[in-house]
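SUBJECT: A protein chain and its fold
Encoding: whole-number codes for local backbone shapes
Chain under study, with its fold:
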Amino acid sequence: MPDQEDQLFTNVEAAHFLGLMPGTIRKMTWAGELPAVRPTGKRAVRYRRSDLEALLRMRTTPMGGKRGERP
């Protein structure tokens, strides 16, 4: 069994994991915001669990400053 970190997700599985729509996952991939793996060529796209978790951490980490305070 592979490490959980190396587990690959389909577009739909990645969307469910992140709480997003599959179309959003595709857009993020095309924009280069979410790394993708193509294990069998161009058409099959998979996402590493470690990349999805890193995106979650980045999106949930406070940016600093106090709430309601402007830079």
The helical segments are 11-18, 22-30, 49-60.
